[in-house]
Amino acid sequence: MLKAVSERFGENAAVADASQTISFRALEDRSAELARGLLAMGIGKGDRVGILLPNGTDFVLAFMAATRIGAVVAPLSTLYQAAELRWVLERAAIRCLVTVASFRNHDYLTRLEEALPDLVGQTAGAIASPNAPFLRSILVVGACDRSWAKSLFEDAVAALAARPEFDHAFLSAAEAQVHPSDPVCIIHTSGSTSHPKGVVHGHGPFIRHTFQMAKDFTPLGPGDRVVALRPFFWVAGLGAQLFYCLQAGACHVTIDSPSDEALLRAIEQGDMNLLAGDETWFQRLRHSPKLRDAGYEFVEINVEFCGVARRDSRDDLMFISQNLAQRFPKPEHADTDRFPWTFGMTEFLGAHTSLRWNEHTPMDRARVSGRSVPGVRARICDPVTHEILPAGTPGELEVRGYSMMLGMDGVERSEIWTDDGYYRTDDLASMDANGYITLIGRLGDGFKVKGANVAPLEVETALYGFKEVERCCVLGVPRDANRTDSISVAVLQLRHGSVIDEQAMRAKLKSQLSSYKVPEHIMIFTEADIPITGSGKVKRSELLAKVTALLGE
Fold first, then answer.
1. pTM of this prediction?
2. How many independent structural domains does the chain possess?
3. Does residue 422 sit in the same domain as residue 500?
4. pLDDT tens digits, 380-432
5. Cβ(378)–Cβ(352) under 8 Å?
């Protein structure tokens, strides 16, 4: 894939951050050199390489270098604390870890010593720790003052100088033994109450799925420069942003921070013309005084991509880049309610349910997730009997198809798939006779209020319609010891400087939801007060305990 996009897009920019911009051709050449260095350092097919790096060009070079020689890359959350890091290094059987000394307020070298205290005093390249029994080397991007670590790029060069036999012919021979059926990465996804699940994906499905999605389900094109914030350790950042951009010939741009100032610099100095994100971010940008005063408007092209536009002298809205203007000569603010709410999961490399980027949902099916993408099949089954349910009946969503994971680390196949190869998602959904799927919620998150079922996701979706809401979580607090009835509580994190009129919020919710679904209590929490996992999900059990305690006071 890398050689193909290098030949097709050549000197076009492929990835960029504050330190450098790398073209498609340079990405091919530089990752090849680093791959040769990894081979010279003893890394090869089947070895598991953890990457604990922030988004940016260094991550992309390390990922490409490792995967082209058959190593299995595990992108690790930059939010992991010591205990989480120790667990994943052991469970994922990481042989080589690529990291950075520090990033923002994270000191990863100290954190590694907290996770693996016996690292101290060990020799780089010969690590032996019973807490991570397969870990042998730690390679650091940039300066490092620890005896147990080496410099990634400097030591790759030194290894090649010492072992000249690892030339381009040797690299080609190694690459020839990497097949579409081989594993390419292991992505850890965390629920709100359990350890991360290690989801293993193959080269073939990864390349085919990102190609299909980039081509038919995004508005991306060669020469676009796309600011995307989702971290590469999530499938939504790695597959649905980085690889969609690469497959389409667009440049993935990492900015220093998600601030309006940083985005304004990217627009005016970096020729950025597209944003990749979600509706919550797009809404915040539309209400930003700084960006509005600079004359920019943000036009949603679909639910995940937004173009940067401004008014001309005739007050006509135009995209700021000629690249976009040629493809979309008359941009307009669309009815976002008719965008499909693309639905996916790590187990399927992201989206398995959506519509093509220029296709809207039918007028009478607003806010559905779309239909199964080509190559994927879905069905709705009874979560207890597993019988297939009639069209329109809510039940558990089961999915199978070409982008499905190879397996889950440490879990037998019989525990994952049904006898006929479907994956039980634990998602509550319905599907109509035309194949349109509507996501209702998670089977395990629902609760009853006065005998009626409440799906938190439905209420949270309504709450996200308020521009003041940055994050929300709807919980059911047991009303009594029998747990047959619950008190519905909405926990809100507000955007900076925002306040809410609780009475007006309730009135609006009552116009959108059945009365029993409207939260009985609305609580305002700060960002620091809401417990989240390493993958950014709310730890519902911990938050429920906090809310229960507050209600009992």
1. 0.83
2. 3
3. no
4. 998 878 999 999 888 899 999 999 999 999 899 888 999 999 999 988 889 99
5. yes
